[in-house]
Design goal:
38% of the residues lie in helices and 17% in strands. It is of the alpha/beta class. Strand 1, helix 1 and strand 2 form a beta-alpha-beta unit. Helix 1 packs across helix 6, helix 3 packs parallel to helix 4 and helix 5 packs parallel to helix 7.
Length: 310
Amino acid sequence: MNTILVTGGAGFVGSHLCERLLKDGNRVIAMDDLSTGSRENIDHLLRRKDFRFVLQDVTTPFEVQADRIFHLACPASPINYQRNPIKTVTTNVLGTLHGLSLAARTGARFLFSSTSEVYGDPDVHPQPESYRGNVNPIGPRACYDEGKRCAETLCFDHYREAAVDIRVARIFNTYGPRMAVDDGRVVSNFIVQALRGEPLTVYGAGTQTRSFCYVDDLVEGLCRLMDGDHIGPINLGNPGEFTIRELAEKVIALTGSKSALIEKRLPVDDPKQRRPDITLAKKELGFEPKIALADGLVPTIAHFRKVLGL
């Protein structure tokens, strides 16, 4: 039985990961400052003897005895990470530094949750791990994009200089139950708007593409990466590619909504295409997503119906 620390453990992905780790027979410590995570996401775990919650901002040094560390702590949606961009950079850089320092002291294996945003608005499609990206370092998204890129640098410098046992996952768009109503990501935005009978907001013409991975598939990939020998970076996501307009139409059909679509101006530095090349993940981890978008949207919509009381 391992003792595993999950920073960002009360978040959307973090809470699902905690459940999976407990199911696999581990002791789990969830650390979160609840700035974007929610205690409701882990309420059902708090009575368990093999689960502990620690209220902590990772920008402050922390000391926890654990065999493994999943470092997920950071706002992940554009609305949240642009709300306080300096804090976002600080969380990425200092939070990762503190986690790596803990791993160096204790010998814990350290998995960093990076992001497809390190590729920026890509010139290469789909994006392999060898692609170095097209990121605007002074744009409004840079606090997250460059923060994650710097954190990857810290991981590999600790690997080379301090022999820290690292794993680096580049996570592509993920969705599922426990996403927040005000999350600001496209799946949650569309579902909430459709359920409320509001127009669905499409930026630009809606021809930009994204790939959507159901949270259970992502958690499976994270666990395989942590348990395997490949250090990464490695793409984790679903290579199925959809235009934003196609996603909107799927959500309208599955919710039975009569909502229309309205177009708004495309945000600055918004990527035109985003799809992971998961060749490496298939080879090294045996990872391949199982849940199709339409199938994953059903429980996600049910989650939002319940939260909205509809």
